[in-house]
Design brief:
globular, single chain, 101 residues, mainly alpha, 0% strand
Length: 101
């Protein structure tokens, strides 16, 4: 899955005719993940899903208006997990093997 505006729109459940500029939220999410030291794992489902979830969170909260401790803890935990995802060579293929069975 490639993360782009169309996948974010589908993730949010928005119709294609929605005029909202989702590209800004997606770019902000990718920028935040990279600033946290997470490499671009463009073929990693966990990375893609986290970028979508973070972009959706930014969209839902319109930026930084709700910076609750619980929300920030969730983001920090996901970023920490992704920073070390590259050390697990089987991370991308683990889900594919389960699907093949």
């Amino acid at each position: 899955m490639a993360v782009n505006v169309d996948t974010l729109r589908a993730y949010l459940g928005l119709t294609p005719d929605n005029a909202e500029d989702l590209g800004a939220y997606l770019a902000a999410a990718v920028s935040q993940v990279r600033a946290a030291g997470v490499p671009d794992y463009s073929t990693n489902r966990q990375y893609d899903n986290f970028v979508l979830a973070l972009a959706a969170d930014l969209y839902d909260h319109k930026g930084l208006s709700d910076n609750s401790a619980a929300r920030q803890s969730m983001i920090n935990a996901q970023i920490l997990q992704l920073r070390y995802a590259g050390e697990d060579d089987d991370l991308d293929t683990a889900g594919e093997a389960a699907e093949d069975e």
